[in-house]
């Protein structure tokens, strides 16, 4: 990534409003866009990209103001992720996951724990990764005096070696009790495998990780007091929260695909020789396709914004979150997740219809938008999201909180 023309954020006032933070994210996106296709092809570890997120202040967006954070909320965070993802879906995902793992202490931990984590994260501009793949149950946690010992492997660990700290998840040996903790990413025994080699989201450092006797103090076990965990309904808000992160970078990628394609159509596409038009932008089918795809994107963005605002009310008063409120929110999230998936896949595929054969060159890199969306939308089957909505409509059944609902 070129750093020759980076904005001088250090000498400018920090943004103060949600709108100003969204504009800051757009500045970051403009830097990422300059060589996004080349960086995607190279697939190199995104150290410079994460430094960009830190220097711009985006990593501390949710952090407390008194410790250097912006004190913003999830509504703003989702918009920022969407904006960054227009230029680079991988970096948008990294940022979105960072926000979730930064927030994990508040979701699960005691007040003392999350206040400490959020203060340290803001002061030190920590970038978070997470070794929390719920389909892998082979990380076993044992006790050794005042310490917990994590041993096993996770297939996916987004953030990997570009992170400063990593959220770990495991199950106490011989039980079904899960435990979360945060450790420095260079902790002895924590090994990232650099084996993420997928068709899309290539810069997310989402490869496997081995935990070979990773030790952490018992006191760092999120939400545990004297070895016991007291559950709250708010603990289960992790799923709808991160699913809205997914929605944010799906829609960002789709928006970026449309913007990039439109620029190509205006500047490079040739009209069809038998169509009777001198310019591609005058072709009726081209105009219709852009109108169709843009209308669909705007509709889902509006729904996503509305659902994010509904979620903010739950985040603003965690102790008041009821099972009914949580369930109804998850249904709404499931609905927008389903629509965002379909629209992002459609847009990232159909842009080639209005750019033409020459737009398929590797140098243009238009395929990265589809590859990115296609890769991550397989995270969990969208049919099960539609099922959540359908069951609620037909029988008023709320989704049971699981790792995916």
TrEMBL record:
Pfam families linked: Acyl-CoA_dh_2, Acyl-CoA_dh_M, Acyl-CoA_dh_N
Main location class: cytoplasm
Domain Acyl-CoA dehydrogenase C-terminal, residue spans: 244-379
Example GO BP: L-leucine catabolic process
Family assignment from sequence similarity: Belongs to the DszC flavin monooxygenase family.
SUPFAM superfamilies: Acyl-CoA dehydrogenase C-terminal domain-like, Acyl-CoA dehydrogenase NM domain-like
Record-level GO cellular component terms: cytoplasm
EC number: 1.14.14.21
The protein's enzyme class: oxidoreductase
PANTHER family per the UniProt record, alphabetical: ACYL-COA DEHYDROGENASE (PTHR43884), ISOVALERYL-COA DEHYDROGENASE, MITOCHONDRIAL-RELATED (PTHR43884:SF12)
Species lineage: Bacteria, Bacillati, Actinomycetota, Actinomycetes, Kitasatosporales
Gene3D superfamilies linked: Acyl-CoA dehydrogenase/oxidase, N-terminal domain, Butyryl-CoA Dehydrogenase, subunit A, domain 2, Butyryl-CoA Dehydrogenase, subunit A, domain 3
Domain Acyl-CoA oxidase/dehydrogenase middle stretches: 138-214
Pathway entry: Sulfur metabolism; dibenzothiophene degradation
UniProt keywords, alphabetically: Flavoprotein, FMN, Monooxygenase, Nucleotide-binding, Oxidoreductase
Domain Acyl-CoA dehydrogenase/oxidase N-terminal: 29-116
Record carries keyword Cell membrane: no
Catalytic activity: dibenzothiophene + FMNH2 + O2 = dibenzothiophene 5-oxide + FMN + H2O + H(+); dibenzothiophene + 2 FMNH2 + 2 O2 = dibenzothiophene 5,5-dioxide + 2 FMN + 2 H2O + 2 H(+); dibenzothiophene 5-oxide + FMNH2 + O2 = dibenzothiophene 5,5-dioxide + FMN + H2O + H(+)
Annotated compartments: Cytoplasm
One Gene Ontology MF term: 3-methylbutanoyl-CoA dehydrogenase activity
Protein name in UniProt: Dibenzothiophene monooxygenase
